[in-house]
Every structure is written in structure tokens, then in C-alpha cells.
Amino acid sequence: MSILPMILMASAMFFPLQPGESLPPLKGEFLTGRQAQLPEAASGRVALLALGFTYNSRFPVEAWISRFRKDFGDNSHATFYEIPMIGGMARLGKWFIDSGMRKGTPRSDQENVITVYGGTDSWKQRVGCQSQDAAYLILIDKHGVVRWRYSGAFDEEAYKDLHVQVTALLR
After folding, report:
1. Is 106 contained in some domain?
2. In the chain, which end has fewer C-beta atoms inside a 10 angstrom radius, N or C?
3. CB 12 within 8 A of CB 135
4. Residue 12 and residue 62: Cα distance in Å, rounded?
5. Gap between the Cα atoms of 113 and 134, Å rounded
């Protein structure tokens, strides 16, 4: 195989995820300490994944999740995951970081938070990261296929679109 097809194949793995593509495996750990892997952890449910790459990204992530929970939190066929993506030297503080997140997260929500240490560069590419402080949202269907994407702060018009997508997938 010549070098050009190999380069094209390698780079194709890191283009932003598009609706209709399967979610690549995303491995991390629930705040409860149990290992997590998406899309398997969604257990055949429609799931909103909210990735954040910095401490400041937690604010837009929480805004999106709060609204999603309000509308779909009682539906057993829908779920969400807050996914702090921690790279670089911050990984050395895993115990401290996880401990702080556990203290700030109600026990009932700890299976909805998946911390991911390492591999952040490839996920930044997959979500088309332009601003590290933004929330990166991926809606997957019951089969782990990407159905909707968005990045940024909470936006009412974008949320209406998400709501329509989730409602259609739950039918």
C-alpha cells in the first residue's frame, strides 16, 4: 500500500463525527469507580453525551444536562452522560480530581458522570473542537449511532432541535 492511502485512512479516523456514524468506543470510569465504555453503557437507550475539555466547560455542560434532565429525566429510554475529558499533566491528579467531582455530584448522578483520562486529542478532533471551554454534545440512538451534534453554550434554538431529535428517537 502506498503512503497516500495510509495517510488518508489514518486521517479519516479523526474527522469530526457526523450523524449516521457509529460512536467510536469511549472508555472511562464512572464516579462510582466502575469502568465505563460508550456506547455500551447507554444500554440501548437514547443518550446525550456532553463532553468538556476544561474546568470552564463544566458550566455549559451542566446547563445542557440540566435542561435535558428536566425534559427527559423521567424517561427510562433516555439517559445522559457528563464526560470530563482530562488530558496532559492533569491526569496526575486523578485521585484529587475524582474525589472533588464525587463530593460535588449527588450519589444518584455518579453513574451519569464518566471521567476520561487521556486520549483527549483524538476526541477534540472527533468533535471538531474550536473552543476548549465549550460543551460538545453528541446524541446517540439506541444502537450507538450519532444522530445529532452541537458545540457551544446552551442555546434555546439548538435545544429545540435536540428535543425534536430525542422525541423522534423515543417513538
Report:
1. yes
2. C
3. no
4. 31
5. 17
Residue 119, domain member (yes or no): yes
pLDDT, tens digit, 9 for 90 and up, residues 76-122: 999 999 999 998 766 667 777 888 888 888 888 899 999 999 889 99
Q: Is residue 73 part of a domain?
A: yes
Give whole-number Cα distances, 40 to 26, 99, 115, in Å.
Answer: 9, 25, 16
CA–CA distances in Å: residue 52 to residues 110, 117, 123, 152: 16, 12, 10, 10
Dig out the grid coordinates for 135 from the structure: 460543551
Separation between Cα atoms, residue 110 and residue 33, nearest integer Å: 9
Residue type, 151: S
DSSP state of 125: H
Give the model confidence (pLDDT) of 16-43 as tens digits: 899 999 999 999 999 999 999 999 999 8
Q: Name the E strands within 17-102.
A: 26-30, 35-38, 46-52, 78-86
